[in-house]
Recover the amino acids of this structure.
């Protein structure tokens, strides 16, 4: 049996980001929350952890449509972001906003359709 895609997963590697935004937990929370809103997703909960002044932030927004997670390394100007959404939520809209708000010099994007059992090329 072939399933239609159950979700859209976007993986972002953000490079060349200034250190200050990557250590700013309030900015990260506002950015992820706005990204969820822009995607048409509903936030169910937020858990962010700053590691200390000038250090990175790790966290997740739990969405009715799945999640957005982030892990930052200010000392390397780098952030890893996962945006996974199902239903009508637009994962790429959220991903684009996050990259723009953090002003990454370079963004690498990988996309994956999830839950496509039986589709050609879906087995690993």
């Amino acid at each position: 049996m072939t399933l239609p895609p159950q979700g859209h997963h976007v993986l972002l590697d953000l490079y060349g980001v200034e250190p200050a935004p990557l250590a700013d937990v309030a900015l990260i929370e506002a950015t992820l929350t706005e990204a969820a809103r822009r995607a048409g997703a509903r936030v169910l909960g937020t858990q962010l952890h700053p590691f200390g002044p000038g250090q990175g932030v790790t966290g997740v927004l739990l969405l009715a449509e799945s999640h957005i997670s982030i892990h930052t390394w200010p000392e390397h100007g780098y952030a890893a972001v996962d945006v996974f959404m199902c239903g009508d939520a637009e994962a790429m809209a959220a991903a684009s906003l996050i990259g723009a708000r953090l002003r990454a010099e370079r963004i690498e994007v990988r996309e994956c359709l999830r839950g496509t059992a039986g589709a050609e090329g879906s087995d690993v």
Q: What stands out?
A: The longest helix spans residues 25-39. Strands lie at 7-15, 43-50, 57-63, 66-73, 78-85, 106-114. The chain has a mean pLDDT of 92. The two ends are 17 Å apart (CA to CA).
